[in-house]
Amino acid sequence: MLTRELLAIPMPAGQRLDINSGVARLSGKIWAALWRDDRQKPTTAVLIVHPASNFLGHYALRDLARRGVAAVGLCTRYVGNDSALVMENCVLDIGAAVMHLRSLGYAEVVLVGNSGGGGLAALYQEQAEHPTITETPAGDPVDLTAANLIPADRLVMAMAHPGRATVYTEGLDPAITDETRPFDRDPSLDMFDRANGPAYGAGFLARYRDAQIARNERITDWVLGQLSELDTHRREGRNGEKTGPDDLPFVVHGTAADPRFTDLTVDPSDRRPGTLWGDPWTANFQPASLGHLTSLRSWLSQWSYTRSRANAYRCLAGVAAPVLVVYGSADSAAFPSHAKGMYDAVSHDRRELVEIKGADHYFQGTPELATAMCDHIVEWSP
Questions:
Q1: pLDDT at 15 over 70
Q2: Staple partner for 329: which of 44, 82, 134, 270, CB 3.0–4.6 Å?
Q3: 2-163+309-379 maps to which CATH number?
Q4: Region labeled Disordered — which residues (predicted)?
């Protein structure tokens, strides 16, 4: 019989107020759901992670547990709200979860980065094997070299893209030239202007991708300037410490403008046109789609193309653990080039690339394909 247990995992202390809820902060806990088959005594725990998604009810947990492992869906401290998310703190949360699972007696931990968890899981494993980070990209202390991170025994990129900053930049709308006026647009860089496509020509796509990176870097430069300006508004408190704001929120418009959403010849696959949030033009501005509200410090850690460290293309090169990359041929968020790029980044031969034909990002209407993914995760023996 399958049973579900809620794990209360001690949360590593953060360096700043980045969780709105006092209840969550003062509890000192992050949470995970553990599923297992009572008729067996699993020795392997499969830990599924994402920076901000609520994985307590992850679709793969029951299927994994039926295959004789303890299946664990983790929520980081930023569950449901990534506006102030710092990736390095998410690494600490995964570290706490891995340590907790070891304390429960699990001899092997398989770390699964799902969707936006791909870049985070790769960063965790790289830092657990070779810790180097002592501060966030904004300069806040977060010493991963002293965190005693335990490396996972195996690493899985499941329906994953290489990192939030990468996929975010691939969807950043370069037609927006004034960050406060999203509908004053440069028609020469507008994928929604029918004069440009679809289908999009190679020249347009090259200029488009360059302009996306340039916009991301402009925002990063502005963020760095804002952080410097904030320093001038801080005041000396009674005890000599500086007080006052050291972070601010801001809005980013136009984050669902990847040409792959409307042109299926770009990074060809079995996917259908559109985004995970519906029509691309609508999703491009919809508050609930990707990364429209962020803080200055979170931008540098989470969304900056040049500053964010959660990049599987870079991190996997330094990972010694076996790596499995599983992707769906009909996925409209994590594309074939993402999977192949991550597979190619692994520098050893204990790696495997698996395509699940017909699977979309959430296995909607195809539970048998989700079962196939779980089979690959549990049965894979590098």
A1: no
A2: 270
A3: 3.40.50.1820
A4: 233-252
